[in-house]
Design goal:
- Helix content is about 15%, strand content about 30%.
- By secondary structure, it is of the alpha+beta class.
- The strands form 2 sheets. Strands 1, 2, 3, 4, 5 and 6 form a 6-stranded antiparallel sheet that branches. A 6-stranded antiparallel sheet has the order 7-8-9-10-11-12, with helices on one face.
- Strand 1 and strand 2 form a beta hairpin.
- It is globular, with a radius of gyration of 23 Å.
Length: about 230
């Protein structure tokens, strides 16, 4: 009986010592700085995109915090093929224009454009050159656009959003994942999204806090975020 009790006690001690583990944070640990957008896009492996497809010609995703939605799609004569926004991309009048691969992103909460990044005067229409959207082509990245009213992303996940609609049905691109379509690549990281044409040296990074527009292979950086941190 004594041996049996001792055996049970020994087994319980062994179980408790192997089932529990303790870890302490290193007070001297400093997390590495986030990579510049082009470097992030180069280094992270590409994720399978089939589960993110929003149609035969569009791959769309939303970030886990529901602040950014992006469509990896195409444009003709400035008209975008975006599945969650009304558009005239399919109008026969646009058939004369070349099809260009693009990435278009919308934010629910966003920074305003820097004065130097306002690209035009909205053609004299009086529309505001607002934040909340970013467009990447193989040759350029532009933040903000001439528009009035709210985007679909603002309507669903902005301060007065409905939390319902086409954006809410999209799949997430998880933090640290990359996705590529038609030579353009996107990555969700550092609580935002970076997209770029890696071979062309053009990219952007956008988040709630600010944005970067990158060109010349990373030599030129504009926007409210001069460095990621």
């Amino acid at each position: 009986m004594r041996r049996t009790v001792l055996g049970i006690l020994a087994a319980l001690l062994l179980l408790s010592s192997t089932a529990c583990s303790f870890s302490t944070k290193d007070p001297n640990y400093i997390p590495p700085e986030p990579l510049p957008p082009l470097e992030q896009l180069k280094q992270v492996p590409v994720t399978e995109q089939t589960s993110l497809a929003a149609g035969n010609d569009v791959t769309a995703f939303v970030t886990p915090d529901r602040n950014i939605v992006c469509a990896m799609t195409s444009a003709r004569g400035g008209h975008l093929n975006v599945p969650y926004e009304p558009n005239s991309y399919s109008d026969s009048a646009n058939n004369k224009f070349a099809v260009v691969p693009v990435v278009h992103c919308e934010l629910a909460a966003y920074p305003k454009p820097e004065v130097d990044d306002v690209a035009d005067d909205c053609g004299g229409t009086g529309l505001g050159y607002l934040g909340g959207t970013v467009l990447l082509t193989p040759n350029s990245a532009v933040y903000g656009s001439c528009r009035s009213g709210v985007t679909q992303m603002e309507a669903e996940f902005g301060p007065k959003g409905s939390k319902e609609g086409p954006v809410s049905q999209l799949r997430e691109l998880s933090e640290g994942q990359n996705i590529e379509r038609n030579g353009l690549r996107c990555s969700a990281y550092n609580s935002g999204v970076a997209c770029g044409n890696v071979s062309g040296g053009v990219a952007f990074f956008v988040s709630r806090e600010g944005y970067q527009l990158v060109s010349d292979g990373g030599k030129t950086v504009r926007g409210s975020l001069k460095e990621l941190s």
